[in-house]
Amino acid sequence: MKKIILIAALFITAKGFSQVFISKGVVEYEVKVNNHKSMGEGMWADMMRDKLPKISTSYYTLTFNNDKSIYQFNRKDLASKMPWDAGEEDNIWYNDYVNDKFVQQKNVFGETYILTDSLSNIKWKMTNENREIAGFNCRKAVGVIFDSVYVFAFYTDEITASSGPLSLHGLPGLILGITIPRMYTSWVATKVQVTEVEEKKMVAPKKGKQQKASELKASVIKLTKDYGSYGQQLVWKIFL
User: Fold this and answer.
1) 2 within some domain
2) What is the pLDDT of residues 157-207, one digit of tens each?
3) Which of 62, 178, 184, 192 has the fewest beta carbons under 10 Å from its own?
4) 3-class secondary structure, 112
5) Residue 74 lies in a domain
């Protein structure tokens, strides 16, 4: 009986030690955009559709710990590159979860801005659906951004950082997969590196004209009000 108890205790101990939670590292995301659908309808869209790649693919990296994260461009599939998206390569998303704020470097209509504001409060609803992404078991959650845009996210609680690509956050673990149907875009982690994070590289961007994100958003909405569905896509893309 003593041997049985000892074996059981060793098994429980080993099982407890085998569950290691990750709090810092680097994730690579593959980002796919359906350009033909995101252009909307109209004469201009009909003219350009056949001249542009249907799907664009690019790769971004998220460096994270439990306190903050930085998300930025890594590389692009040149065969599917859009002719007017060069400025997106300079965009940087810095999230400070301790102080509940973000700092973003964004190229907006050819001008570089440093946007600041409080982190958005995304209301998430958990589901029972699961999926494996980059070797991690992930659970599906559904959130709403921009008042009415649904976000379908898969997060893993094996990584404790409540972070994700862009400004998406607030789940009990790291977001490894996202689909936003109304933006015709998906983000899927292709690899996760469990590594020490260089704190000196996780700093807020400073290059650009200082602006409150909410103020610039109001200006962009006004400027693109006659662009139809494509204008709406631009607003979402700039301020996500």
Assistant:
1) no
2) 999 999 999 999 999 999 999 999 999 999 999 999 998 888 888 899 999
3) 184
4) strand
5) yes
For residue 6, is it within any domain? no
Cα(59)–Cα(206) distance, rounded to whole angstroms? 23
User: What are the respective helix, strand and coil percentages of the chain, to the nearest 5?
Assistant: 30, 40, 30
State the pTM of this model. Answer: 0.86
Quick check: is 173 in a domain?
yes
Contacts 24+ apart (CB under 8 A), 38-43: 38/183, 38/184, 38/185, 38/230, 38/233, 39/230, 39/233, 40/228, 40/229, 40/230, 40/233, 41/228, 41/229, 42/228, 42/230
Q: How many folded domains does the chain comprise?
A: 1
147-161 as b/e: b if 16+ CB within 10 A: eeeebbbbbbebbbb
CA distance 68 to 93: 11
- CATH code, 65: 2.50.20
